[in-house]
Amino acid sequence: MAARSDAVSLPEPRSVGELADRLQRPRSVALVLPRLALPYLQVAEALAALGAPSTRDVLANLLGVADKEGARRLDTALEVLADHALVWPDGHGTLHMAAPLRQAWDAPLGLERPLAELLTGVTSDELRGMLAALGVKPPGTKQQRLTNLVDHHSDPDRVAAVVAQAPAATRRLLQRLADPEYRRRQSVMFGAPEPGAEPGARWALDRGLLVQDRHRYGPARMPAQVALALRGPDWHAPFDPVPPLARLLPVTTEEVEREAAAAVTAFAAHASSVLSVCAAEPPVRLKSGGVGVRELVRVGKAARCDETVLRVVLETAYAAGLLAREGDLVPVTEAYDAWAELEPGERIPLLLRTWWTLPLTPAQARDEEGKSLPALAGTPPCDGCVQARHGLLTAAADLPADRGVRQASEDLGSLVAWHRPLADELPQDKTPFATVIREAELLGVLARGALSGIGAALLADDAENLLAGTRRLLPAATETALIGADLTAVATGTPSARLTTLLDSVADRETGGTASVWRFSPGSVRRALDAGRSPEGITADLTAVAAGPLPQPLSYLIADTARRHGHVRLAPAACVIHGEEPALLAELTVHRKLAALGLRQLAPTVLVSRTPLDKTLAALRAEGYAPVAETADGTVRIEKAEQRRASAPVPSPRVARDTAGAQRPAARRKRVRESADGLRALAVRLRESPATSPAPDPYNGIPFDTDTDTDTDTEEIITGYASGLSLTDVRQLAHAIDAGQAITIEYVAASGSHTVRSLSDLELDPPYLHAWCHLRNDERVFTLSRVRGVMPA
C-alpha cells in the first residue's frame, strides 16, 4: 500500500478484494511503471511476452540467467515487482502478473501475442488443416486440435525442423519477421507489403507459422512461440541488473558541501533579486499565455541573472504561490512579502521542494523545432519530467561513498536512463538529461558530481533535515554593504530585504549572485528624491548600512543632486513651469532641444507649455535638469512606485506552510507518523475483514469483492443508474460527489466515442451528473449509465 498509494486513496478500500481490484486498474498500473528501474521493466516485459502464466525457470531461460549471481538479481527484481503488486508467485511456482501490465507494450520484445490468442476465432476445420500440413494426426475436438497445435509450436526443435523444409522465400520471410528489430524498422517504412501478401506467406499460413484474420483482414502475424524458436537458443531478452559504469573521481564530503553552499547561495541571491524585480514591475504575459522572451530578457537584465536561473526561479516561485497570474501581468502575491523577510536559509527550502515535485522541467527553453518557449505557459503536467529528477538523485545516491562522477552532464545521463527508463528527455539536450542535471547543480542539490546533503534530504522527503541543511549552508542575510569611493555598494551573500529595498531605491543594481553590486549615480539619487526622500534621510539610511564611514564622493553626489533638485517645478495647466530663478527659466525658453515643448514665458518666474506635464517633465530631465512635479494644490508630487500584489496565489500552495516556507518539523513528523499509523491500521482492518466469495478469475488468481452492499444513499443511487460500474467505481464516484472532490471518468458519448474526462464541481441529478469538464473547459451533463470507469483525479 505504501508503494501504490493511489490504491488506498479515499474512500479507503473495505476489503482485501476491493484493494486487489484497485491494484489491477490500468491507470493504477500505469502510474507505477515510470517509477521502476530498467531491470524491473525488462523482467515485466519478458513476462508480458511469455503471455500465459509462466514459471521462474522459463523466465530465467528467456533472460539468459545462468549463474547464481544472475539468479539472485532476477529474484531481487521479482521481489520488487511483487512489492508493487505487479508480479507474484502462487503456491505452485507459477508467476502471475497484473492483467493491465500485458498492455503496457504493444509488442513486448518485438513479439506478437501467443499462438492460442492469435487463433481465437479459427474454425475446427482450419485447425485440422494446419495439423495435417504439419504431419500431425488431428484429434476429434476443436479444443484438442488447438492444444496439439500449441504444443507443437511450443517446441523450438519441431518449429526449426518444419522451417527447414520450407521454400526459400518462406524461410526468408519468417527470419525477417522473427528479427527483434523488425517492428522498429517497420514503423519507419512506408509502402512495404504486408507479410500475408508476400511470396512464401501461404506456405507458412497453412501450417500456423503465421496467423491471419480468417477474413484475410490485416497483416499476417507470427506467434510469439514461433518467433522465439526462430531466434534460436542463443537469443535472450535484454536483462541489465547492474547500472552502467560511470567515470568516478574521489571527492570528500567537505568539498561537496562547500560547492553546494556556493551554488545554493548564488541561487538564493538570484531568486531574491528576480522576485524583487517582479514586485517592482510585474512581468507582462503574452496574449497566447506565458512570459515571452522579450520580457524574460528585461527581467533577467534587471535581476542580473541568466535565462536558465530566471526560468527556474519563475516556475518554482509560481508553483509555490509567490507569483500569480492576474490579468495580463504576473505580480507577486502577499505570501512573497512574508517570504522576503525570512533568512536565506529559510527561504530556499520552499523553492527546493517545489522544484522536486514540479511536473515540468523549468529550464526547458526550446521545443522540438528549436523555437523559444515562454515561461509560465501552463504546459500540461509531465510525469516523465518528475521521474527524470527523481532518477537523477537516485543515481547520485547510489554512487560509492566519497566518489563523484567526473563530468556530471556526461556521466550521469546513462545512470538516470537506467534508474528511470521512462523519464522524459528534452529535445534541447545535447547529452541525455543535461537540463535537469544543470538545474540540480544550480540549486546545490548536486555538487562535484555527487549528491549533497540537501539533495539527500530532498530524496528522503525530509523537510526537517532540508531546512537544517540550508540554514547551515546559507549564511544569514547580509545587513550591511561595503560602500566604496567609486560610488558602488557591494553586499556579499544574500542581502536582506531591508538592504535590498534601500539600495534598489537609491542606486542601480549591476550584478547579483554570491555578491551583489549597486552603483550610485545622479539619476538614481534623484529617483530617491523624487520618491519623497530627503537628502538627510538618504545619508542617514546609507550610513546605517555602510560597513564603514560613508565615502566623501557619495556625500557630495547626494548633496549636489539635492541642491539642484526641485529648483524647477511643474504644475498642470497644459502645463505651467515656475521657479525662483528667472535666468534659469529664461534659459529653458531658448533651449533649442526643448523647442518642441512649446514653452512660453508669462512672467520672469513662470512659463507655460503646450505639452502635457509628464512629457514635459521627462524632456527636461533628459536635458540634464532636475525639475519636480506639483499636484493641483501646489504641493510636491511624490513619485513612488506602487507595489502591486496579486489578490490570491494561483495555484494555491500544495500544503499549509509556516512563514518559513517549510512545514514545521513537529507538524511534519506528526503527519508522517499518522500516515504510517494509518496504513498499518488499514492493513489490520483489511486482513480482519470478513471473507467474501471471489468472482471468476479475471486477475490471475486475485479474487475481488462481489459484495454490492452500499454504505451511503449516494452509492445506492449511482448503483441503480450505473449498473455496469463495479463497487469500487461506485464508491469512488460517490465519495467525490459527497466530498466535493475532483474525479476522472471513462465515458462513452452518445456517438459511441470513448473519452477520459476530469471533472469537478460534481452535482448528482439522477440519471445525470452535472460537472465542470476540464477537457472541454465548460459545464457538461453526463449520463450515469454511460460512465464505464472511475479513477482518482
Walk me through the structure.
With 793 residues, this protein is an alpha+beta fold. The protein has six domains: 5-105, no CATH class; 115-231, no CATH class; 252-473, no CATH class; 482-545, no CATH class; 567-629, no CATH class; 713-792, SH3 type barrels (Roll), CATH 2.30.30. Helices cover 45% and strands 12% of the residues. The protein contains 32 helices and 23 strands. Strands 15-16-14-13-17 form a five-stranded mixed beta sheet, covered by helices on one side. It has a five-stranded antiparallel beta sheet with strand order 22-21-20-19-23, with helices on one face. Strand 7 and strand 8 form a beta hairpin. It is elongated, with a radius of gyration of 36 Å.
Keywords:
793 residues, alpha+beta, 6 domains, 5-stranded antiparallel beta sheet, 45% helix
Terminal-residue CA separation = 18 Å
What is the tally of helical segments? Answer: 32
Assembly type: single chain
Please tell me how large the radius of gyration is.
36 Å
Largest sheet: 5 strands, mixed
For the secondary structure, the number of strands is 23
Average pLDDT works out at: 86
Percent of residues in beta strands?
A: 5-15%
A few lines on this structure:
The chain has 793 residues and is α+β, with helices and mostly antiparallel strands. The chain is built from 32 helices and 23 strands. Strand 11 (508-511) and strand 12 form a beta hairpin.
Topology:
Blueprint: H1 16-23, H2 26-32, H3 38-50, E1 54-55, H4 56-63, H5 68-83, E2 87-89, E3 94-97, H6 115-118, H7 124-134, H8 142-153, H9 156-164, H10 168-178, H11 182-187, H12 201-206, H13 224-231, E4 248-250, H14 253-280, H15 293-303, H16 307-319, E5 332-333, H17 334-340, H18 344-357, H19 383-397, E6 403-405, H20 408-419, H21 434-442, E7 446-447, E8 450-451, H22 453-459, H23 463-473, E9 482-483, E10 488-492, H24 497-506, E11 508-511, E12 515-519, H25 522-530, H26 535-545, H27 552-564, E13 568-571, E14 576-579, H28 582-590, E15 600-603, E16 606-608, H29 613-622, E17 628-629, E18 645-646, H30 665-688, H31 713-721, H32 727-739, E19 743-748, E20 754-765, E21 768-773, E22 778-783, E23 787-792
Parallel strand pairs: 5-18, 13-17
Antiparallel strand pairs: 1-3, 2-3, 4-6, 7-8, 9-10, 10-12, 11-12, 13-14, 14-16, 15-16, 19-20, 19-23, 20-21, 21-22
Helix pairs in contact: 3-5, 7-8, 9-13, 10-13, 14-15, 14-16, 14-18, 16-18, 18-23, 19-20, 22-23, 24-26, 25-27, 31-32
